[in-house]
Every structure is written in C-alpha cells, then in structure tokens.
Amino acid sequence: MKNNVQIGLLLLTITVIGIAAYNIYLRETTPPTRSFTEFLSEVRQGEIVSVHLRGGAITGKDHAGRQFATFAPDVASLLPLLLEQQVLITAEAEPVPGIADLFKALLPLLVLFGLWLIFSKKAAQSSVKGASPSARFTSIKGDRVTFKDVAGISEAKAELWEIVEFLKTPTKYSRLGGRIPKGVLLQGAPGTGKTMLAKAIACEASVAFFSMGGSDFVEMFAGVGASRVRELFVEAKKSAPCIIFIDEIDAIGGRRSGGHSSGSNDEREQTLNALLVEMDGFSSGETVIMIAATNRPDILDPALLRPGRFDRQITISLPDVKGRLKILEVHTRKIIAAASINLEEIARSIPGFSGAEIANLVNEAALMAARGNKDAVEMADFEQAKDKIIMGLEEKSIVVSEEDRRLTAYHESGHAIVALMLDETDPLHKITIIPRGRAMGLTQQLPLDERYTYSREYLHNRIKTLLGGRAAEALVFNRLTTGASNDIVAATEIASRVMCEWGMSAALGPVAYRSSEPGYAGESYRDKPHSEMIAQKIDEEVKMLIETCYDQAMTILRKHNTFLHKFAEVLLINETMDAEEVDIVYRSYLKERELERILTEKRGHDDTNIHTSNK
Ligand code: ADP
Ligand code: ZN
Q1: Distances in whole angstroms, Cα of residue 87 to Cα of each of 33, 57, 61, 242
Q2: What are the φ/ψ torsions at residue 62 (nearest 5 degrees)?
Q3: What does the pLDDT look like over 165-195, one tens digit per residue?
Q4: Active-site residue among 412, 473, 493, 501?
C-alpha cells in the first residue's frame, strides 16, 4: 500500500512539472498578440516587414524585429493593403485540425486519464493483494453468530458441535494420540446456512475465522490463486487455533482433468494442488480446521475427500416444516410482529424455502408493513412478501409445483408402505419429499445391524420396495414418470446380481456368470464366460424377477390403498417423517383396520342372527 502511494505522488509531481513546462514553452514560442486595429495602423505606417497568413491567423515581424500575432476578420480585403506596403507575404492553407493539434488540446485530459488508469489499476491490484487473508479476516466480535441462531438443522449442529469441542480443548483430544479432524465438507443447497454454521463454530469456540470464496481464488492472473492459498494458510497458522472457511469449493476443487487442459483449468488445478499440499502440511500442533461448502459434492476432485482432508461430510438439507418454523422464530425475533401472526401457518405455506429465503421473507414482510405505516408486521404483509419472493423463485424455476409435490409424496409413500408390509427388510429411517440435489424425495432404510449376508427373500423385498415408488405413481395417477429412474437402475442391478453373482435362480443355477457390464462389482476372472443363449436366459430371468416384484408391490399398494392415501397426505403436510412418526401412522392404520375387521365380523354375526330369526 505504502509503495502505491509513493508511486502515485511521484507521478503527480511529474505531471504537474510537465504541464507547467509546457505552458512556459507555449508562452515563449507564441508571439504576443496585437489587436487588428493596431496591426492595420502599423501596416499603413509601413512598420511591418513580413507576415505569415494561415487562414485568418496572422503572425509576422516589424521593423524592430519584434514578433507579433493577430487575427484578421477578412484576409482578402487585407491583401491589397499589404501589397501596397510591400510587406513580404507567406501563406499556408487554412489549418485542418491535425492530430498534433488534437493531441495538444487533449493533452491535459490524456494526462488525467493516464493517471486515473494507473491509479485504478493500482487499486485493482491492491484489492487483489489486499484480499490476502489478513484483509479478509473476520473479527468474531463483529457479528457474533451462535449455534442458537442457526435453526432447524439440529442433526448437522450436533455433528459439528464436536468440532467446537476440538477447537476449545485441542489437547484433550490429541493427548492420547488421536487425530483431530482437519476438514469438514458442508454440502447443501444455497442459503441453507452453511456459512452461518462455519461462523457459529468459530464464535462458539472463540477462535479466529478466515473466510474466502472458492471463485476468489481462480478469477485471476496465473499463479495468483496458488500463492493466495499459501498466504491464507500462513496467516491462519499464525492465528491458530482457527477456522478457514472456503465457500463454493467446487470453483477450485472440481475434478482435475489430468492431461490436456485449457489455460484457465491449469490455473485452477495449480490452486487446487496448492490447497492439497497445504492441507497435508499441517503439523499436529496447529489446530486449523478447514470447513468448505459446496452445492455440488458430485463434481469435487476425489483427492479432496481423502482421509486427512475433507473426510467429514455433512449434508445440510432444505428445512422441513418444523425447521422452517424454527428459522421463522429466529428471524421474527428481530421484528415487531402483530399478535395475530401465525408462524406455523406461514411455515406450512412455504415448502422448499431455504433459510436464506425465510430470512428474506421476514425482512420483506417488515418492509411491507413499514411501507403501509403499520405498527406491527401482520399476516397480510407476510402473504404479500411471500408472493413477491415466490415470483422471483419461479423465474429461476426453483419452486416445486404442487403437482410434483403430490407425485413425490405418493412415490415415497409407495416405497414406505411396501417396506412396511414386508417382513424381511430394513426398517424405515426417514422419508422426505424435500428435494435434495436432483432427487425430488427420499426414502431411507437403515439396516438394524451391519448385514454381511443377504437372503434371497431380503433381496427380493428390496427390489419390491424400490419399485413401490413407480407402482404408487401408476396406481394413483395412472402415469409413468421419470422420477423412478434411479429406483429402476438400482432394482435392475440387484436383480442381475441375484442371477449372475449369487446364483439364486433355479433356471440359471448356482453359477457365477460374467456380467455383461464391464467393471461390474461382482466381476472377476473366475466368472464364467457364457454363451449367447445363457445371456438371453439371464436377461429373461432378470426381467421376470423385476416384473414379479413390481406386481407384488402393486398388490400390496392396492390392498392398502387407503393407507397409501393417508400416508401421502401426512407426508404432504409434514414433508419429512422419521421412524417414530411412521410408526405412529402405521399403528393407527392397523388399529383402524382392526376396528374395521371387528365391525365386519359383528355385521356378519348380525346377519346370521337376522337369518336365524327369519327362519
Ligand atoms: P449458505 O452458506 O448455505 O449459502 P448462509 O449461511 O450464507 O447460507 O445463509 C444466508 C442467510 O440465511 C443467513 O445469514 C441467515 O440469515 C439465513 N439462514 C440460512 N439458514 C438458516 C438457519 N438454519 N437458521 C437461521 N437462519 C438461516
Ligand atoms: Zn424412489
């Protein structure tokens, strides 16, 4: 910075001196001007020896040898007089403003422009330089964010609390030789609170916080990205224990191309390599924890995710109704809300909103109320703000349509109900219709204990469960959608392994057949090459198994049709259901069925009673 100021001052001085010298030069070379009347009288008196005409501009010499300049309003009428007085006349064409003249006229402007250029370039460079970690150092006292401020993502918070503990008392953990985690990768949609969480960790642990955007590293001249990574780490190590937060790490951490690459890729790869080297270069004494955020974990270079680097990955999903309510509660604390405000209702009406969008909603509502000169923010303001935000989101096509939500709810319910009705299968862990990455929803099953062997029954049930989603869609909407494509791939894979790898089909026998797919999980050199006939047989068997499983899934859903509708309804309202909630819904359904059964039995009895009495 100091250097820049000095250079600037020097340039300024040179310019001032230059301009002054130019002015003196002009004064010295330009003859003093005379009025035209004076000039005329001098000509008449024969004082003038020579003149030089240049358009109307006249320069010349008198007898005393003095130079002068003047301007003639009409040169033509002047000529006879000059000739009469025998003045030596030279002339040249009316000057067309030449480049030199233009330059002279513009010189001061050019100088100013040049100065501005130099300064702005310096400023730009200094902002590049100034973005060195120390300049981006975020003081914790500035904006304190605590874990309490981050609402609705308790699972992620619980996992990250451990990091806070590490930072607070590193020795407690390293004492016994344990390795403190180095890197945590937060993955989730924009605005889900990743930055906030990273800051909250630093605040809770009272350590320094360095933050940088991944794209800051790359949009630069060659080699700067890598050197900035090094600077960042030097700075961070000085203030250890601390947290380094890299937002949008995919900007530098995308998969390396390996081999031929364009220039910008080279730069990015250099930066990534520098980052990897720095991450590996910590000594155990330095408690520096890296937290990175991304929305695209799938495109990250695998090297980043290796042990000792970002080996902890925490997914932060969009909040469900309960989460949205909690986030609303946090943000409405800052505004004056009318007593009539029903946060639950608001939370329910904004499916798919991220934390940032909810914060925005509350703020917009407060602004709406202020515009209307209200004393408190009312429900109507929230309505209006919501419409405004949703409109913006629709433009970016982020909003999930109601139709898609319903379809997803039935799809996931289909998985869930098939799983519930089958015996030998993993218990349901979580069902959600909150979009995550490219998936519209998710039904998660967790094995009770690690399974090492799978029974045929279990595998068949797994296929049925996978196909339950598609079956539900077909049953309720009589429509096939692409939503089930992942399920179908997974089901097909299991079915082929059942046939080729695990020898579980009577028609094919317990023989391991080489799968047609290269790099297939079960493939090995021992697998038997097989004839075209066997290949056909395998295909037939796979298809048959899948079709049977699909039919059975469909049968289950038909049988429990009312449950399917109820389940989907609950899912549409709750958006996520954990094992406990599923259990409640399931048991109430069983009770209902039991009641129904007793009633029909009773009715049957009554019927017979009536019959007997009739006899
Ligand atoms: P990300 O880094 O995931 O894009 P941010 O952490 O920058 O998201 O979140 C942006 C803003 O959204 C935060 O400053 C906060 O106001 C709000 N926000 C996001 N998630 C939450 C949350 N879980 N609880 C409270 N506020 C949140
Ligand atoms: Zn599915």
Answers
A1: 19, 16, 10, 90
A2: -100, -175
A3: 888 887 777 777 777 778 899 998 889 999 9
A4: 412
Tokens 């391991």, residue? 512
Question: pTM for the full model?
Answer: 0.59
Please tell me the distance between residue 150's alpha carbon and the centre of ligand 1 in angstroms: 7
* pLDDT per position as a tens digit, 479-516: 888 877 888 888 998 898 888 877 787 777 777 776 54
Which residues have any ligand 1 atom within 6 Å of their CB?
150-153, 190-196, 293, 327, 330, 355-356, 359
Q: In the block, which residue shows the tokens 């002068």? A: 68
Q: Which atom of ligand 1 is nearest to the CA of 319?
A: 23
Structural domains in the chain, sorted by start? 2-99 (3.30.720.210), 139-257+264-316 (3.40.50.300), 321-391 (1.10.8.60), 402-591 (1.20.58.760)
Pick from 533, 431, 438, 534: nearest CA to 486: 438
Gap between the Cα atoms of 106 and 112, Å rounded? 10
Q: Is 412 noted as a catalytic residue in this protein?
A: yes
Nearest CA to 296 out of 438, 159, 154 is that of 438
Neighbours of 180 (CB within 10 A): 17
Amino acid at 144: R
124 within 8 A of 219, measured Cβ to Cβ = no
**Ligand 2: centre distance to CA 442 (Å):** 7
Displacement of CA 245 from its chain's centroid (Å): 14
Return the ligand number nearest the Cα of 484.
2
Residue showing tokens 């090492």: 452
